[in-house]
Design brief:
With 152 residues, this protein is mainly α. It has a domain at 112-151. The chain is 84% helix and 0% strand. It is elongated and about 135 Å long. This is Coupling factor for flagellin transcription and translation. InterPro entries: DUF6115. The chain crosses the membrane at residues 6-24.
Length: 152
Amino acid sequence: MTAFLFTISFLLHIIAFVAIALLLKQLSQLKQHNHSENVIELLETYLQEIKEENRILQESVINNSLQDKNRTSKMSEQAATVKENRYMNTDEKNENYLVPEIAADDTTEMSLQAKILQLHAQGISDEQIAKKLGCGKTETELVIKLHNKNNE
């Protein structure tokens, strides 16, 4: 008789464990479903907030562009009046303007690099350029190499 009771007890335990496992599975599915709904709701609210911010930003951009157009039109009108005033003033100034005399003593001197490159273009060797200009041979070679490298 005890064997019979052990078997019935054993079967009842198995049925209870299966029932508990099924209930846990259903509970986890409900939690997961609720969690996914919460995530969807959260994303929808974020999306609505972003749409609202975009709408406000677009309105501000449109308002700023209209203000910029108004500013540029006002500035162009002011610039036109300033130009007209300048032209009127320059006509009066041109009558009283005296041309300054140009001094004939102004001389320009080529830099050492320009002289080296000019002589090199004429076909003079690096050593002769160095002797003629009173600088080092390596200096003339360096200037020529840098010039060739920059022109490539």
